[in-house]
Amino acid sequence: MRVTVDRERCVGAGQCALNAPEVFDQDEDGIVTLLVREPEEADADGARAAGDLCPSGSITVHED
Amino acid sequence: MTTSTGPTVVGFPRRTPEEPLPLSQYASHREQNGLVLSHLPNGVPVWLVTRHEDVRAVLTHPKISANPDNEGFPNVGETMGVPKQDQIPGWFVGLDSPEHDRFRKVLIPEFTVRRVRELRPAIERTVDERIDAMLAAGDRADLIGDFALPVPSLVISSLLGVPPADRDFFESRTRTLVAIRTSTDEERATATRELLRYINRLIAIKEKWPGDDLISRLLATGQLTSVELSGVLLLLLIAGHETTANNIGLGVVTLLANPQWIGHERLVEELLRLHSVADMVALRVAVDDVEIAGRLIRKGEGIVPLLAAANHDTEVFGCPHAFDPERSERRHVAFGYGVHQCLGQNLVRVEMEIAYRKLFERIPTLELDVPPDGLAFKYDGILFGLHELPVRW
């Protein structure tokens, strides 16, 4: 699994940092930052949930 | 491809004391092809959106606007209308991208998951103080007036940097705005004016003597004029007050009926979904011809995405009316969706979590002081909630 984020689209809702704190964080402007590009199996569900929940479509999860 | 048959026409969602959140009407609308057409109380036709997928599509469509200045924006009644931009500059929930984004960007750092976590001790203190006051006053209380309404108001006032000596004033005026049964239109207009005057004075003070608070930090960014800032602050206050209070009150009722779930880690998320207090606040209008659910929506036609309907869509949530914190599906839209999704959502989550935890820890014998069928649900205001919640212990 690979995760990419679009910081331009991000609206700082923080659902990613809340649901997958091992994979995502918010910088000091509150915008998404990626902690891990290829999450471990244990964090995969959290990353998928963050992709599903992101209100601005800033998170893409590539299942490859 | 658009459907060729005409849309089904339905009555505007009818909220009653028996069904204050009209979920049975929504269920039948979801069965219809595409969207259903309805008429606002003022007779203007409007599209109702009741499926989860369609609600998300509407709230992210670039040609669907949240700006009430656009012709055809649904006016759901005076109290439900979003103010026009020339009335309250800074009321950015009524702006579209990119104008909207300037306001949101300045505010995001104040509501990050990390910042809200830092507020926890202050929120716990506020909640404890309100419980102390209830316990000191006797063995019964109105949990709305004595707890659910003051807590978010006190939290937001401390966030804004309202001095402790002024917080009672602040709390009483915000409470007047919410008391639709007991306050007149004129009293509410006066309370709004007094709050705006107070906010403007506070801004002037923070300009001279900045502190460690939200107003001082927003001023320091230099991104907002003081008129815009006062509109933004009023918006934060109104958006975060009754919504949070209603969630706290309804959540306590649901937890008293389902005490086995008290303390569950997914409790707050499920309560947000189940009660969907802001069902009808995300009003929109098409600013070009658009297609949603195979239905052509013409430029200038109003759209009412119903968040509670989406959150009870059986395609997404199995047994949607059941309170089940262990359900695996998390994609509720209780905070809306798209660029306008609630900025304060992480703050609300923490307020709810602390409120339930402290209430049931400190008052383990808490119970309703009315029969469950005697609860006064709000069906006559903007938001779903309780007018009052008599409890005893």
Automatic annotation (TrEMBL), chain A:
Region (Disordered): 41-64
Coiled coil regions, renumbered to chain: none
Single GO molecular function: iron ion binding
Entry keyword set: 3Fe-4S, Electron transport, Iron, Iron-sulfur, Metal-binding, Transport
Cofactor: [3Fe-4S] cluster
Keyword Metal-binding: yes
SUPFAM superfamilies: 4Fe-4S ferredoxins
Domain annotation 4Fe-4S ferredoxin-type: ranges: 1-29
Gene3D superfamilies: 3.30.70.20
The keyword Transport appears for this protein: yes
Protein role: Ferredoxins are iron-sulfur proteins that transfer electrons in a wide variety of metabolic reactions.
Protein name, per record: Ferredoxin
Automatic annotation (TrEMBL), chain B:
Pfam assignment, any one: p450
SUPFAM superfamilies hit by this protein: Cytochrome P450
Entry superkingdom: Bacteria
Segments for region (Disordered): 1-21
CDD domains (alphabetical): CYP105-like (cd11030)
GO MF terms held by the record: heme binding; iron ion binding; monooxygenase activity; oxidoreductase activity, acting on paired donors, with incorporation or reduction of molecular oxygen
Keywords in alphabetical order: Heme, Iron, Metal-binding, Monooxygenase, Oxidoreductase
Entry-linked PROSITE patterns: CYTOCHROME_P450 (PS00086)
Annotated TM spans: none
PANTHER family listed in its UniProt record: CYTOCHROME P450 YJIB-RELATED (PTHR46696:SF1), P450, PUTATIVE (EUROFUNG)-RELATED (PTHR46696)
Family: Belongs to the cytochrome P450 family.
Protein name per its UniProtKB record: Cytochrome P450
Organism: Streptomyces caelestis
